[in-house]
Write a structure and sequence with these properties.
Low-confidence stretches: 1-17, 22-59
CATH topology: Rossmann fold
Strand content: 5-15%
Mean pLDDT: 81
Number of domains: 1
CATH architecture: 3-Layer(aba) Sandwich
Radius of gyration: 17 Å
CATH superfamily: SGNH hydrolase
CATH class: Alpha Beta
Strand order of the largest sheet: 1-3-2-4-5-6
Distance between the termini: 33 Å
Shape: globular
Number of strands: 6
Length: about 270
């Protein structure tokens, strides 16, 4: 099926283009020093997580075989998110976790990252056309096998009930638009100490995703970013991630998707 490469994006500044990615290289090198710090942080702060598999309650929402097909190399993937998907804080602020995971897993992907936005928040644009729901609708001509909706940490001024309701309606719309696609929501993934301020947001997004029947990957609950590893992964502003941090986040999301694709009789560690 012919697919649009412009993504049908709303009228937003050209500095935030929808980008198409194909597999271009093998797994990139990750700075071992920073990763060592991250590992140490997990071992010190989270011995249970680092030594044992935790079974997430939402892993059975999508059959494992569907996930395996959706994440296979060459799959058509749509990623919609905020500045983390765009790559703010990285080299030239244009290479985030989304670009890394697309390259690493060999997807044929459309990446739509727009800084400051969320399920409700419109950032500095002041237009509902930049919310996740509107941008998902703008990609209606695509035919993705996997849809990843990342973020919501920008929705900090929104009441939890409104956020939960909006998350549910947004993800339900994605399901209606692409009934054969695997839809996965990914929550706030800020480094510490900002991560601690996103607890209410993450809980609201989790509730909305559950109501919509969509699998939710929760970086905050799984403590991907700790007080020990965050200094090595945070950008200079302390709000975003650096190149190593985005690769780390990409690896974590890829691992979570692999776990969702594991046979149901195997432990799944998200």
């Amino acid at each position: 099926m012919a697919r649009r490469t412009d993504g049908g994006r709303p009228d937003v500044p050209r500095s935030f283009p929808t980008r198409r990615f194909r597999n271009r290289r093998t797994l990139p090198m990750v700075a071992l020093g920073a990763m060592a710090v991250g590992t140490a942080g997990l071992l010190v702060m989270l011995p249970a997580v680092s030594n044992a598999c935790q079974v997430a309650p939402d892993t059975a929402l999508v059959p494992a075989d569907r996930v395996r097909d959706a994440i296979a190399p060459g799959s058509d993937v749509l990623i919609v998110g905020d500045s983390y998907t765009k790559g703010s804080g990285s080299t030239r602020s244009e290479h985030g976790w989304a670009q890394d995971i697309v390259t690493d897993l060999g997807w044929d992907a459309t990446v739509d990252g727009l800084g400051g936005t969320g399920y409700v928040n419109t950032g500095t644009y002041g237009s509902s056309r930049v919310t996740f729901s509107a941008r998902i609708a703008a990609h209606r001509d695509l035919d993705p096998e996997l849809v990843l909706v990342q973020g919501s940490q920008n929705d900090w001024l929104v009441g939890t009930d409104q956020l939960r309701t909006t998350v549910e309606s947004t993800l339900r719309e994605a399901e209606r638009q692409w009934p054969d696609a695997v839809i996965v929501a990914i929550g706030p993934s800020a480094p510490q100490p900002r991560a601690e301020a996103t607890g209410g947001i993450s809980s609201a997004v989790a509730a909305g995703a559950k109501a919509a029947g969509v699998t939710y990957i929760d970086p905050l609950e799984r403590q991907w970013f700790t007080t020990m590893n965050s200094p090595g992964f945070a950008a200079s502003d302390g709000q975003h991630l650096n190149d190593v941090g985005y690769q780390y986040l990409a690896d974590k999301v890829a691992d979570a998707l692999d776990d969702l694709a594991a046979p149901s009789d195997e432990p799944q560690c998200l």
